[in-house]
TrEMBL record:
This is PH domain-containing protein. PANTHER family: PDZ AND PLECKSTRIN HOMOLOGY DOMAINS 1 (PTHR12752:SF2), PHOSPHOINOSITOL 3-PHOSPHATE-BINDING PROTEIN (PTHR12752). Gene3D superfamilies: Pleckstrin-homology domain (PH domain)/Phosphotyrosine-binding domain (PTB). Transmembrane segments: none annotated. It comes from the Eukaryota. The gene is LOC102151511. Residues 29-126 form the PH domain. SMART domains: PH (SM00233). InterPro entries: PH-like_dom_sf, PH_domain.
Length: 148
């Protein structure tokens, strides 16, 4: 079982690495795409990115014409919340599963777009339960559901 999970992790990493080397519009079947502004905590400025959400990973591009991603966030374990920050009305907070990781703040052009992104982010993260959680969920099923 452990070998299987390691193989899955490597396959997933290979896919996301491959996707990050593609132009934004070459990523097939994105779950969400569009402009988002990311708060740069060091300068307290908002930086615009063209973003693609796919399989629990948010790819960040300088523009829609970029040839590859300038960065990406693996969102497994992150919680998505709507927050209010002083400089913006409504922002998307991506809170990590542990304090050792960074919290990210994004905002779209308006509240409707923010809601679209929040829904897509939550659904994308939920699809990719950690393997240990999936195993636990399977083990907690009644015996008759787990028979082959």
């Amino acid at each position: 079982m452990l070998k299987y999970s390691i193989a899955l992790t490597h396959v997933w990493e290979d896919v996301t690495l491959h996707n990050s080397s593609l132009p934004p519009l070459a990523i097939k079947n994105p779950e969400c795409l569009g402009l988002l502004h990311q708060l740069d905590r060091s300068t307290d400025m908002w930086v615009q990115h063209y973003c693609i959400l796919k399989d629990g990973c948010l790819y960040l591009y300088a523009s829609i014409r970029s040839t590859q991603a300038s960065g990406g966030l693996y969102l497994q374990g992150y919680r998505v919340n709507e927050q209010t920050l002083s400089s913006k009305q409504s922002v998307i907070e991506l809170k990590p599963p542990s304090e050792e990781f960074k919290t990210f703040y994004f905002c779209a052009e308006n509240k409707t777009e923010n809601q679209r992104w929040i829904t897509a982010l939550k659904m994308s993260i939920k699809k990719w339960l950690p393997l240990h959680q999936a195993i636990q969920d399977f083990m907690n099923r009644p015996l008759e559901e787990t028979r082959m």
